[in-house]
Structure of Zinc finger CGNR domain-containing protein:
Amino acid sequence: MTPSALFLADNVALDFINSEYGVGDDYHDCLIDDQSVVGWLQMAGLLPEPFHCWAPNGLLALAHQLRRCAREIVDSAMKDSPADPTVINALLEAGRPIRKLVWNDEDQAYRISPQQRDSSAESLLEPIAEALVGLVTNDKFEFVRQCEAHDCVLLFHDLTKSHRRRWCSMATCGNRMKVAAFRSRNKS
């Protein structure tokens, strides 16, 4: 059974990194086969509706490679040091969308419409690579955080007004940590 995907990060690239979460006995990986990668992409809203293609061969391997590289890029950027962007750059090149000029009836004007190049693994995963590039080159990257819960490895983009968010989710880690702190104070 595929574990539930967590969409808590306020950024699709971070949510993709978070598709592998937990430690020890609580470890979960949402990407266990090619079809589960397609399922994750559908839940993230990254596939055209309706999507009727089979998952391309090699999708899982490339997704794992992308996730590993994305985590390295984010971790290194948080430490102000470089990491190898080869996987990201290859995906951006091979999966880049086709841009077409189309007429928009609603606006009564022409517009550029990016369209998925094909159904290759690179084309399916390119939006995640693009989101990662947008994240690490954005001046708001400084607000990428790791959850402060001692047993949580999830990353999130703190887009709150005060930028004081501490947990991936108040409903899970936040409440657990507050209860633990309360019990610790009352024990003394």
In short: Helices lie at 12-17, 34-43, 59-78, 86-94, 121-136, 170-187. The two ends are 43 Å apart (CA to CA). The chain has a mean pLDDT of 88.
